[in-house]
Design a protein that fits this description.
Helix content: over 70%
Radius of gyration: 18 Å
Mean pLDDT: 91
Strand content: under 5%
Length: about 180
């Protein structure tokens, strides 16, 4: 078994288990195999079991997006630069379309209701932060909200389509087209 000092050390492997197998398919045996930890160690770090593990993964993802996407969209003085950085960070995070969105995986599964608040919050915060940046570019609030929703939905749809077709480069092409929807000054 593997020696792990902190819960955070397990999160990357745990995230990939949920990403690859979904909540339902992520058995404790599989989680143990991928993290290198036995059941006792897993329950030591996550007394609430698999549900607590999934919640920790969602919190970790939310923290990454808040730091690298949402807050820069809200606070960067140059909204064009913030939006360009959003597309770059998104491309990096999703490995240029080679990695699915775990929040999307949970949203589309039977576990959706169990994590509804986190799932809704992730998508709403992304949409709202992007809409704020678009408003700073001069879009009226309604148009900014609609465009932000189209872009976030387009990114998520491109991830699903790229995965379904086994064509990760589709994701990058779609990002270019979505970025072209932004009204630059």
């Amino acid at each position: 078994m593997k020696t792990v000092r902190e819960r955070a050390d397990i999160l990357p492997a745990l995230t990939e288990v949920f990403r690859s197998h979904g909540y339902e398919g992520a058995s404790l045996a599989l989680i143990g195999q991928q993290t290198g930890l036995g059941k006792g160690s897993l329950y030591n770090f996550f007394p609430g079991g698999k549900e607590e593990m999934a919640a920790a993964v969602l919190d970790h993802i939310d923290g990454w997006f808040r730091t690298h996407v949402f807050e820069p969209l809200r606070t960067t003085a140059d909204p064009e630069a913030a939006i360009a950085a959003m597309f770059e960070a998104t491309d990096r995070y999703f490995h240029s379309g080679g990695r699915v969105c775990i929040v999307g995986v949970f949203a589309l599964s039977d576990v959706r209701d169990r994590f509804a608040e986190r799932i809704n919050g992730y998508f709403a915060e992304w949409r709202d932060a992007l809409a704020q940046a678009l408003q700073r570019l001069g879009k009226d609030p309604d148009s900014a909200g609609e465009l932000a929703e189209d872009i976030v939905a387009g990114i998520q749809g491109a991830l699903v389509t790229a995965r379904a077709l086994g064509n990760p480069s589709l994701f990058g092409r779609r990002l270019v087209r979505l970025k072209a929807l932004i009204p630059l000054r």
